Amino acid sequence: MWLHTINPSVKLLTVLASVFVLALFLDPVLYLIFWVGLILMTFTLSQTSWKVWSLLTAPFVFMAVGYVWTAMLFPNESLMAQETLIFEWGWLRLTEESLLRSAGLGMRVITFSALSLLFVLTTKPTYFMLSLMQQLKLPTRLAYGIMAGYQFLPLIKEEFQIMQRAQQIRGVGRPRTIKERVIQWKSFIIPLLASAIRKAERTAIAMESKGFTGEPRTHWYRKISVGQRDFVFIGIIGALFLLSYIGSSFFN
Amino acid sequence: MTAKWKLSEIIVLSVLAVVFAVVYLAFFQVGNVMAGIMGPIGYEWIFGIWFIVSIIAAYILRRPGAAFLSETIAGTVEVLIGNAVGPMLIVSAMIQGAGAEAVFAATRYKRWGLWVLMLAGMGSSVTSFIWGYFISGYGALDPGYVAMMFAIRLASGALLAGLLGKWISDGLYQTGVLNSYAIARDKKREFHAKAS
Fold first, then answer.
1. pTM of the prediction?
2. Each residue of B101-116: pLDDT tens digit?
3. Do both A163 and A232 map to the same domain?
């Protein structure tokens, strides 16, 4: 459960910084080592279920495959002039380096998804918003506004189901063609938005009538702090990056 | 940025962002299937849909920052819902919102015609593409192919964000829920100017 206790803002910034740094490389080996490290972290330092994790990773594997074959079929020819050709068939040319670049693009997608899951699966939405206010100084009006909007999610979903059933009762069939689908979508989106806006106004009035003005705060009912373990977390990610960097240099 | 805003405007902004965060996630599944089949270009056709909340929020509220904030909040809500693209979505959302915001700022928040909205959608296309070039490593791909991706994204931004966004907002205006916002003020002024 250790990862759950890391400060959400620290976790967010660390993940973002890692993505920036990793995007400067295009090295499948570096990504692979980093990815394995992330997996070890995810499963030893938190109680993430591997089923959920694999289910969420699957679409990215799919996406990565798309990247790999696109990069193989449409490579940047200007990079390939000096490289070692290993395969040529008609207009399709593969060099050792271009294959590595393709693999790098695919591996990058998968590594980024593991980084995101490290954040998403171990961070509670409410704590995340509270931490944004307390550590990153997000204005309270905005933060509580977002939290209020976020609370509407189940209501909006319920309303959508009511509208769907109302349409079914009145004999509106399931859409078959794309045109029918668009027409049906159109019949949902405007009423849904209209009722969401009405709800928003009522909420704003309620918040103001209870004395919410949105001035900066110094005291919090639930205090989110930054501690030693947050620096340990940054240290682990940094060490993992160094390890992948050194590890990948043995292969090149 | 939001100091002058009414609280109801802030909450309307975040509620719009919440609704479209769900729409965005639904389209993400569509995009994923298309990208699996066609490669990264599969995303480009529908990329414009991911800018739509900037257009709608700015068009309704007509305040500096509405385009940027609504998109950023939509990205944050996608993370709160627990999407696996995760924290990077917030950064890409900020970059997309900034593109639309720049176009609205260039008109000094005074012009809200269809062309401006379509240009704003294309503004998001430009900034998001530059970001995508870096983060997804398009440099490894054939420049001609990348140019084609960019052209499709521009068209998608203009149509799916600009045109569709205006169409949805005008539909919403007709229901009467927007009567206390800037869009109604301007539309009524236009109407009276024509009548007199």
1. 0.89
2. 999 999 999 999 999 9
3. no
